[in-house]
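Input sequence (199 aa), recorded before submission:
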Amino acid sequence: MNIDVLSALALFSLITSLTPGPNNLMLMASGANFGFRRTLPHMLGITFGFMSMLLLVGLGLIRVFDAYPVIYTVLKVLSVLYLLFLAYKIATAAPVVTSKSAGNPMSFLQAAGFQWVNPKAWAFGLSIITIYVPVSGFAPLMLTAVVVAVMALPSVTLWTVMGGQMSRFLTSTVRLRVFNGTMALLLIASLLPILWPDS
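Predicted structure, token format:
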């Protein structure tokens, strides 16, 4: 993989990871409700979870999905159900007075596991594998996964910090409920591309 391909991959990864999606919306909500430090496991879980998914898919798991297309349908149903559940959890998060002690942010393993039912992660991962990994083998795939993970770090940090900064204005129960309700609705809206891909 030459420097031109690596540069293009890095730019693609940065731009794609910065765009709104389930991960970023949940990080923003977590940053606002729990703060940066308590959201760190969530941030790292997204980064390493997606890196692991990219490696496994690149090493041949995609052939299993091609052989059994029903898996795509199962993943779509799981994605929708899980995102609806997360939207509910965000919308009903504890009031600002108690949110620092009540409830828990997503853990490292939960965030890593979520990548397998995250429609944006699948679209992102399949695009990377088919476009930026021109040769087979573990070395180019590993290099690709590392580049993607490094470029994701500014994004997960930015969205969490934005959420944390917003917590300054979420000093009343009403404001927090409006914010959490908005985040939940946006999370549900992020399902539209997977439910109606041609719309």
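Checked by second reader. The chain is about 75% helix and 0% strand.
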